[in-house]
Design a protein that fits this description.
Number of domains: 2
Shape: globular
CATH class of the largest domain: Alpha Beta
CATH architecture of the largest domain: Alpha-Beta Complex
Radius of gyration: 21 Å
Number of helices: 10
Order of helices and strands: HHEEEHEHEEEHHHEHEHHEEEE
Distance between the termini: 50 Å
CATH superfamily of the largest domain: PurM-like C-terminal domain
Helix content: 25-40%
CATH topology of the largest domain: Phosphoribosyl-aminoimidazole Synthetase, Chain A, domain 2
Largest sheet: 7 strands, mixed
Oligomer: single chain
Number of strands: 13
């Protein structure tokens, strides 16, 4: 590339050198679209079709040092994770993700390839759910912050909220539980294997299809497991004014997770019950409802009592765990 003086021009190596509009061009050039997008990036706002006439919306924020570390995760990993945790919220309402909006805060000295790879990760995770990135904003700041807003369509289903569980319902889950927490523990000890658990922390794989499928089957309440199984079932129990009892024998604890637990001195059941960020989907169903093969019954909904909202094998879970942004 030649400059007006005939010499070879400087290729920007940092976000500051590239500039706001150069960064926007770099990011939007990496995007693909879907049939739901009527107006994509480049205008004052995006236009996304909503055949159901109801739009499901959710937003999450990831802050470097709080939600991700660059020495643990690549920019691509962070992008996949940011998109996944937002679209999992859409699926947990029984909806289908359609579009994502990105708010990005980066330091001027950040290498140009970092936000580019981040966008690649967001785009590729959106493709998994047949959604698209349709716009956003970039600003300068001292700490990398990734804010995603996800939109979804109900496709003529009623939303499945946290408040519909009733005594007698079965509690079932689909997706992984405890894998991300085990991976986080491995990384915090300075290791990078077993790789499957480390990757589960870096790039969660929510079962997007399972939310709408559960809604179609008559799920009475539903949420994704972002804060930990006990904590998230607690949200359902509190909103529904019921108690939920989890049967630990029904929880899937892989042999390799036991091996990791033994190596680091942690009961793997704690990861399964209180580890977040797997974004499995947990729901309550009428007891007579037959569940698909990928769903596993793990407990039951009971009438409220003097016990906590969620119990494990009939007793309070008295071990620490569960994610709280203003406590942990």
């Amino acid at each position: 590339m030649l400059s007006s003086s005939g010499g070879r021009s400087h290729t920007p190596s940092t976000v500051g050198e590239l500039g706001e509009f150069g960064l926007i061009r770099e990011l939007t050039a990496r995007l693909t679209t879907t049939s739901a997008v009527r107006v994509g990036p480049g205008d004052d706002a995006a236009v996304v079709s909503a055949p159901d006439r109801r739009v499901v919306a959710s937003t999450d924020v990831l802050v470097e040092g709080r939600h991700f570390r660059r020495d643990w995760s690549t920019a691509y990993d962070v992008g996949r994770k940011a998109a996944a945790q937002n679209m999992a919220d859409i699926a947990a309402m029984g909806a289908v993700p359609t579009a994502l909006l990105l708010g990005l805060v980066v330091p001027a000295e950040l290498a140009v390839n970092w936000p580019s790879e981040l966008m690649d990760g967001i785009r590729d995770e959106a493709r998994v759910a047949a959604a698209a990135v349709v716009g956003g904003d970039v600003v300068r700041g001292d700490t990398i912050t990734v804010a995603i807003t996800a939109l979804g369509d109900m496709r003529n289903q009623e939303p499945v909220t946290r408040s519909g569980a009733r005594p007698g319902d079965a509690v079932a889950v689909t997706g992984w539980l405890g894998w991300s927490a085990a991976g986080h523990t491995v990384l915090s000890r300075g290791f990078r294997s077993p790789r499957a658990f480390v990757e589960a922390h870096r790039r969660p794989e929510p079962p997007y299809h399972a939310g709408p499928a559960a809604a179609a089957l008559g799920a009475t309440a539903m949420t994704d497991v972002s804060d930990g199984l006990v904590a998230d079932l607690g949200h359902i129990a509190e909103c529904s004014k019921v108690r939920i009892d989890v049967r630990s024998a029904e929880l899937d604890v892989p042999a390799q997770m036991y091996d990791i637990g033994q190596a680091v001195g942690v009961d793997p059941l704690q990861w399964v019950l209180t580890g977040g960020e797997d974004h499995a989907i947990v729901a309550t169903f009428p007891a007579e409802q037959k569940l698909p093969a990928r769903w596993r019954t793990i407990g039951e909904v009971l009438a409220p009592s003097a016990l906590p909202h969620v119990t494990v094998d009939g007793a309070p879970w008295d071990k620490a765990g569960g994610w709280n942004h203003f406590r942990d």
